[in-house]
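Standup notes
- DV: blocked on the single-chain target, sequence here:
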Amino acid sequence: MYATVVTAKTKGKAELVIICDDEALKGPHCGFCSAASGSKGKAPKETVLAKNTCGAKPGDTVTVSLAEHAELKAALILFIVPMLIFMSALILTTTLPLPLWQSFGVSLGSLVITFLLIKAGLGEKTYYVIDEVAPQRKPLRHK
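- DV (later): unblocked, structure below
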């Protein structure tokens, strides 16, 4: 998939806008444009953070891919770990002499704290990787 570099950040990362056009449909395609609006190319522009391994500069068109096992790692961090912490807190608080609604409230509070810690600790984490700077495509000329 292709993207345009918006800003090059420190620590080897860049902010990108994903490009979805007819050329992207010929290769591996994320399906974001068709899922978001029902027809290709009409989706709102999405900005993502990516590892800038090839030193792309703002304005460059680049090819982007997902890191290996990105979906599994993201699901583990965002769903499995918080749910395990919530369930553990619920089990621990039910052993205390508290009413059930207070045990649930404490567990819910631990879930909120877990999400805040994940956001603070992994705010700049990305699974997108810039593979290479794509050659500039020549504009079509109508005769």
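- Follow-up: The mean pLDDT is 78.
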